[in-house]
Amino acid sequence: MAVLKGFKKFLKEYRVIGISIGFVVAIAASNFIQSLINDILLPVLRPLISKSSVVWEDMVLSIGSVNLRIGLFLSTFLNLLVIY
To answer: In the predicted model, is pLDDT for residue 65 greater than 80?
Structure first.
């Protein structure tokens, strides 16, 4: 019984349950925002940026022997902007 009381005290003292719930909600919100960007916003922006039907994340800028994945970077950047 002493172990159970100590565990309850630990949960209350360090607010572990609240932190866990916040973590789960943050993951769900992140997935929602990622879907919003990738499934709604980027298909609208794609015709404005490129006339071809290239998938946004597959857009690559080649500079010499270096390939910069511009589309993936912009997708991630838009996710960050929406979150903040």
So the answer is: yes
